[in-house]
Design goal:
Layout (H helix, E strand, L loop, with lengths): L1 E6 L2 E6 L10 H14 L5 E6 L6 H11 L5 E6 L6 H14 L4 E4 L8 H9 L19 H11 L22 E8 L14
Parallel strand pairs: 3-4, 4-5
Antiparallel strand pairs: 1-2, 2-6, 3-6
């Protein structure tokens, strides 16, 4: 599934992948292969690590996999609003010691903090090209699929009373997020785009 962010002079296309994990089944191995293949076909990879969870063996496993990529990897420390400044600083230090990152960005989606910084960081790794999606298009998913997702997960902005069991990433199966992005030079019309993961 792809989500498209439209900026004045750019397009960022986020590609959602299953989480990398230590496979115990053939299906798990195939899912990891799919993720690895996707990660080689993007401009930048985003690896999200929550601020309120300790780094564990799953994070180290994923970091080793990501270290083999030629693609830049940006570590994003999410849920920055759920911890104290001291705890956030400690998590940022732990993440910096975990691996070699192109950048590390703390964000809070809940409070919309540092999202613009993250977008700018991602754009610096994206080459110029024509837009990949028409203006206003926010996903490649059909409307029926979007409605089904909302029905399965609960009402928008709220919590589901009973949610279908969906494969949400845990600390051992966090998903590096591939993205595709369009970016345009300020001296040109905003028609230039690229891919990013």
């Amino acid at each position: 599934m792809r989500g498209v962010i439209h900026k004045e002079n750019a397009q960022i296309v986020l590609v959602d992948t299953p989480g990398l994990h230590r496979p115990r089944t053939l299906l798990g191995k195939r899912l990891n292969d799919l993720v690895r293949e996707t990660l080689t076909d993007v401009d930048v990879v985003v690896f999200c690590i929550p601020a309120n969870e300790k780094i564990g063996p799953g994070d180290r496993f994923i970091t080793r996999d990501l270290a083999e990529l030629r693609t830049p990897v940006v570590a994003v420390v999410t849920k920055a609003d759920t911890v104290t400044r001291e705890a956030l600083a400690a998590q940022l230090l732990a993440v910096s010691e975990l691996g070699e990152w192109a950048d590390i960005v703390p964000v809070s989606a809940q409070r919309n903090e540092q999202i613009d910084v993250l977008e700018e960081v991602l754009l610096k790794y994206m080459p110029l090209s024509p837009p990949l999606y028409p203006t206003g298009e926010i996903t490649d998913e059909p409307q029926q699929v979007m409605i089904a997702e909302l029905s399965a997960r609960g009402r928008p902005g709220g919590r589901a009373r009973r949610a279908a069991p969906l494969p949400w990433p845990s600390s051992s199966t966090r998903s590096p997020t591939p993205t595709t992005s369009a970016r345009s030079d300020t001296s040109r019309a905003p028609e230039v785009a690229s891919r990013c993961a």
